[in-house]
Amino acid sequence: MKSIFKTLLTLLAVTLTVCIYSSCSKNDKDETGTPTISYIRITDPNSSDSLLVSAGQGNLIAIVGTNLQNAREIWFNDRKAIVTTTYVTNTSILVSVPSEIPVDITNKIRIIFADGKTLDHDFKVSIAEPVISYMDCEYVPTGEIATINGNYFYQPLTVTFAGGVEGEIESITDAVIKVRVPAGAQPGPITVKTNFGETESDLFFRDNRNIILSSDPFTGWWNSSFVVSSPGADDPIAINGNYIRVKRVIGAWGWTEVAGGPPDAMGPISKNIPDAAILKPEDYNLKFEVNTVKPYNNNTIRFNFGLSDFNNDAYLWNPPIDTKGKWQTITIPFDEYADAFKSPLTVRPNGYYTRVLFLGPGELDADISFDNFRVVPKVNKD
């Protein structure tokens, strides 16, 4: 019985092979008609009805039509695909979209045949527009290099600052742009443009919104001696007027108030936290610039912003951080900051208490500078 069953299976397999070969031979025979493309689809047999007008780099697609057997070259925009002859038949071609980024964007596939004839078909290679994630520092002087981090930074590329001025590109990788800040750059979003789209940043370059502590001018109870107004040769460069520099040894649990005060001592700046940030902190970030000439590697820095009184527990900004003498923008989600307090933040029309305090375990040989504390929207809706 088993031998009869095996014989039947063998006969069935031979029959199927003959049928498949016969079918392929009919499809692959030389045709003299004009090549045509009927449609393009994905190669998954379970999704053969999924037609495409675009595909991403590296994706395998099936070009379906007639009289395609003599295809020799296939171009996507100005990038040549690898053609495997075993995947070319009269009625279809399997080919992968080239991974290389095109320069000349035609949004077409061009097939070149053995007789020199060509066939064009509308088809877009889907390449993402630029993504701007963050800048190493959002405050950079004119003429200096700003670093923009993100993705899909494909050349050719331009960076335009608020004020409509374009920066000089120093270097580009897919994820990092280094650009020289031009004269005339204003506070506001930056725009990165490639052949595949343009993106305006949610962050603001030289962000001057909702500043809650900057010492321009100095206000508060403490500590005017920390304010640098005219940097010397051994001081960090100024990025936005005055800044705060703490350069001293701070002992373990040594109470060191650096800046701040109640609303009446801080003045109008104490009212700069938007009501919307207090009510929906998840929509905002606390940002500031920091510069460590010596690493912040011990002790604890405590922030009090948006409060109705001083809070000794506060938000703990713990070490380590080492910017190696360069200014760097720090971003703390404002809801993370707000969650540090037992009670929800509440709107205070008369202003908020402010304090930057060193208080924690471990002696710190401090040389750390701060500037531009601000509470700003995560998303630019303008």
UniProtKB/TrEMBL annotation:
Q: Which Pfam families match?
A: SGBP_B_XBD
User: Which InterPro entries does this entry report, sorted A to Z?
Assistant: Ig-like_fold, Ig_E-set, SGBP_B_XBD
Domain named Surface glycan-binding protein B xyloglucan binding: residues = 205-377
Q: Which domain of life is it from?
A: Bacteria
Membrane-crossing residue ranges in chain numbering: none
Family annotation (Gene3D superfamilies): Galactose-binding domain-like, Immunoglobulins
This protein is called what? Glycan-binding surface protein
Q: Which organism is it from?
A: Mucilaginibacter roseus
